[in-house]
Amino acid sequence: MTDQPTARIAMVTLDVAEVKPSADFWSALLGWEVAASTDDYAMLTGPDGSPALGLGRTDDLRPPSWPDDGRKQFHLDLAVDDVEAMARRAVELGATLADPQPGETWVVVIDPAGHPFCLTDAANWG
Question: InterPro entries this protein is in (predicted)?
Fold first, then answer.
């Protein structure tokens, strides 16, 4: 262990075209509270100690592509108890299933703002 300072992730922020629909989607999917919201920004808070999720309005948003077209991007991996049930729930909330699907142990979903995210089996995350 070193005496160097370290940091922790306090929040991950996604750029979105419209804040309210994205906040509503992620709040319902994660079961997290919308702690603050304006036309330009929302913050969702989850269980104690977990990073918050921010949603910031961005003019002329160009969502990431799926499959990746070579532009650098990141995505969220969500550990869930039932991948298929959560995929259905995400679609009910306005998401779409990505095409093509890359594997058998996770499902890629596209949120209403165009961000891909993965649903994975929580049992694999210990």
Answer: Glyas_Bleomycin-R_OHBP_Dase, Glyoxalase_6, VOC_core
Q: 44, 61, 78: which is the final residue of a domain?
A: 61
- With 90 as the cut, is the pLDDT of residue 92 above it? yes
Average pLDDT of span 52-63: 92
pLDDT at 27: 98
Q: What CA dihedral angle connects 114, 61, 26 and 101, to 10 degrees?
A: 20
**Same domain, yes or no: 84 and 123:** yes
Do residues 57 and 68 both lie within one domain? no
For 116, the enclosing helix (H) or strand (E) is strand 116-121
List, for residues 22-39, the tens digit of each pLDDT value.
999 999 999 999 999 999
CA distance to 9, 21, 61, 121, per residue, from 99 (Å): 31, 23, 21, 20
Same domain, 123 and 94: yes
Q: CB count, 10 Å around CB of 122?
A: 14
Sheet holding 52-57, edge to edge: 11-16, 52-57, 41-45, 33-37
